[in-house]
Amino acid sequence: MTRGSAPFAGQQALPGGYVHTDEDQDTEATARRVLLEKLGLRDILCEQVATFSSADRDPRGWSASVTYFAVISLQDFESVDQATNLKWVPLTNPGKLAFDHAEICQHVHRRIQSKAIYSTLPAWFLPKHFTLAELRQTYERLSGQSLNDSAFRRKVRELDMLAEVEGAKSKDTARPAQLYRLKEAKLTDFDRKI
Amino acid sequence: MTRGSAPFAGQQALPGGYVHTDEDQDTEATARRVLLEKLGLRDILCEQVATFSSADRDPRGWSASVTYFAVISLQDFESVDQATNLKWVPLTNPGKLAFDHAEICQHVHRRIQSKAIYSTLPAWFLPKHFTLAELRQTYERLSGQSLNDSAFRRKVRELDMLAEVEGAKSKDTARPAQLYRLKEAKLTDFDRKI
DNA sequence: ATAATAGTGTCTTTCAGACAGTATGAT
DNA sequence: ATCATACTGTCTGAAAGACACTATTAT
């Protein structure tokens, strides 16, 4: 978002805000409040990344930021009110950002990249129902490595992470594809690569 | 350590301290300062775990703790001044602790367990020089799974993580074992299990 | 020599990748 | 029919586990 006030006024920065100790139970509640207030998003995947602190990351003095990443689907992305001064940038190349926010992006990118093939994380970038091809492509883009289609289907079956959406088929391709949804309503980790 | 003052006076708690914004560059510097002041330890492996926060984890009001775990060898352990009121407890069963420190231990345990087989972390629990048997046993204890000795040696070789300590042999066993040291002076991650 | 642990070589099993082949819809 | 993509089955190669075997020291 474009910063309205000093320091770094006019520059791009990640959305954030101060903890309101009177209303926020913890820092995750703060993150979710900011997501709702600034972006109108609620009930989305949101996970703590790390705490960035130092004497000089903010010219006003010593500071610490507890950072979270949130994942939304393309659908949620399109529903975000475009009247906000929100600007979307690629995580891998966010351009110049205020404070140490570029470093934070790098950290988040590494986290997502390393977590992608060990969890259901990529599925959260998709709508509730998706095809196996879409899921595999998302795994590939997030992890940065290409996956064998046949082996991917085998592992998805073995990990027992998806449920068929009865009778639902994608119509986007030559042959309609079965639609699936995550079995678990939360992010689950695997003990091996997908 | 045993807490000297309220809240939770007399109870066991993890060593910690407030950030001194005038002398600590960041929270890791705070962690290292506390390690030095309270335990006399310096230059040890120390990594951020997560930030624990909530309105009720401290009866005095809303609070946040940026937590770190530190790893020392048995040798360092024995050099810690036993005059401090430090008490060592198993991470898996720390007993009753002040604040949410038991929860923090659980979190650290999960972190170490999941990181063990994907990094050189276990080697940091050992002295600078160690045998392959010692290293494998440490991997086994930290990860909670037994490892095949032959495969372990193969992977250690492939990962190119160790260097022989020329002419140095352990004398603890029937046949003396070659001593090794880590090639890298820092924690390195693997992209597969050891 | 025997015991005990270190270290090696090889066989077997398991798992991931390749890829051919079939299935199902649109044109 | 043919094209395009979905999905399946099977072969192959690589990696992990099992385990027998040799090596080196102490007793």
Automatic annotation (TrEMBL), chains A, B:
<dbReference type="InterPro" id="IPR054105">
    <property type="entry name" value="WHD_NrtR"/>
</dbReference>
<dbReference type="InterPro" id="IPR036390">
    <property type="entry name" value="WH_DNA-bd_sf"/>
</dbReference>
<dbReference type="InterPro" id="IPR015797">
    <property type="entry name" value="NUDIX_hydrolase-like_dom_sf"/>
</dbReference>
<dbReference type="InterPro" id="IPR036388">
    <property type="entry name" value="WH-like_DNA-bd_sf"/>
</dbReference>
<protein>
    <recommendedName>
        <fullName>NrtR DNA-binding winged helix domain-containing protein</fullName>
    </recommendedName>
</protein>
<feature type="domain" description="NrtR DNA-binding winged helix">
    <location>
        <begin position="125"/>
        <end position="182"/>
    </location>
</feature>
<feature type="region of interest" description="Disordered">
    <location>
        <begin position="1"/>
        <end position="25"/>
    </location>
</feature>
<dbReference type="Pfam" id="PF21906">
    <property type="entry name" value="WHD_NrtR"/>
</dbReference>
